[in-house]
Amino acid sequence: MAYSRLRRSSDQRKALLRDLVTDLILNGQIETTLAKAKELKRLADKMVTLGKTNTLASRRQAASFIRFEKDTEGNFAVQKLFNDIAPKFANRNGGYTRVIKTGFRRGDSAPLAIVAFVE
């Protein structure tokens, strides 16, 4: 997969994107910089597509990317993706997330954005 480099080495970039996807699944929306948000949108949409397939192979593929973390109810991120998020998008063919620009960060004027699942 070709990612934006995000000024990181490949292992740091992969870890960052895994954390962002996991947090998005657990929380429903997150705020980050615009460049990270655009990369996150691509990966989150792919995870929802895997969730819609709902086979053992797709669960393993998603579990190899998503972190092994729990939400407040005690559900793991992979369980939440396959049981709660993916069924909501059963009749939708793509575009499961949206990026909303929110302004600029105070310290370094980096453009900020919110990434959230479409209702």
What is the compact description of this entry?
The chain is built from 4 helices and 3 strands.
Characteristic terms for this protein:
alpha+beta; 50s Ribosomal Protein L17, Chain: A; 50% helix; 119 residues
Question: How would you describe this structure to a colleague?
Answer:
With 119 residues, the chain is α+β, with helices and mostly antiparallel strands. Helices cover 50% and strands 17% of the residues. It has four helices and three strands, in the order αβαααββ. Helix 2 (34-53) packs antiparallel against helix 3. The longest helix is centred in the middle third of the chain and has 20 residues, at 34-53. It is globular, with a radius of gyration of 14 Å. The model has no long low-confidence stretch (mean pLDDT 95).
Average residue-wise pLDDT: 95
CATH architecture: Alpha-Beta Complex
Percent in helix = 40-55%
CATH superfamily: Ribosomal protein L17
| Strand residue percentage | 15-25%
